[in-house]
TrEMBL record:
<dbReference type="InterPro" id="IPR016087">
    <property type="entry name" value="Chalcone_isomerase"/>
</dbReference>
<keyword id="KW-0732">Signal</keyword>
<feature type="domain" description="Chalcone isomerase">
    <location>
        <begin position="63"/>
        <end position="171"/>
    </location>
</feature>
<dbReference type="Pfam" id="PF16036">
    <property type="entry name" value="Chalcone_3"/>
</dbReference>
<feature type="signal peptide">
    <location>
        <begin position="1"/>
        <end position="22"/>
    </location>
</feature>
<protein>
    <recommendedName>
        <fullName>Chalcone isomerase domain-containing protein</fullName>
    </recommendedName>
</protein>
Length: 173
């Protein structure tokens, strides 16, 4: 291959879109387990949750991953509905109907129907948005920092419904 061919190939590769990491761990360098806990509903174990980050305590300017391993079959529509309800509860009137509709469409692409022992991992990318992986395979990326903030607040906001789970995830046992 001559130097002109190498230069042409380099230009072509430069024009291609960046490859999105195949595994969530690529997006959270040096990830360490910050904390873990369980969500139970009427005594039934719904999922195990683990929070991964390179910084402890977790900082809003650092990527982190929230990994949920399910113990029950749950449908995508239930995920979307419950997530929207919690986002609305935490955000109040600051999130309008048009934005909620866009976020609903994003979540329809990000979530799947899960069976026991399947994992969905959400990766928070500060200032960029978030990615969702199903069993370590990229499912969908949301390029909306406001959505990422609102979504992860479901677990990490001081007003989260499950304070024990929040404290455990943040390593505040």
């Amino acid at each position: 291959m001559n130097s002109r061919s190498v230069a042409a190939l380099a230009c072509l590769l430069w024009l291609l879109p960046p490859v999105v990491s195949a595994d969530w761990r690529d997006a959270v360098p040096d990830a360490r387990l910050v904390g873990e806990g369980q969500l139970r509903f009427f005594g039934f174990r719904i999922y195990d949750a683990r929070l991964w980050s390179s910084s402890t305590p977790v900082r809003p300017d650092t990527p982190f991953a929230l990994e949920l391993t399910y113990h029950r079959a749950i449908g995508r529509d239930d995920f979307v509905r419950t997530s929207l309800e919690e986002i609305q509860r935490l955000s109040g009137a600051s999130v309008g109907a048009a934005r909620l509709a866009r976020w609903q469409a994003e979540m329809q692409q990000a979530f799947v129907d899960v069976r026991p022992n399947e994992r969905i991992t959400g990766v928070f990318l500060p200032g960029r948005g978030c990615r969702f992986y199903v069993n370590d395979r990229l499912q969908h990326e949301v390029a909306d920092p406001a959505f990422a903030d609102a979504f992860f607040a479901i677990w990490l906001d001081p007003r989260s419904r499950d304070q024990k789970l929040r404290r455990n995830l943040l390593g505040e046992r």
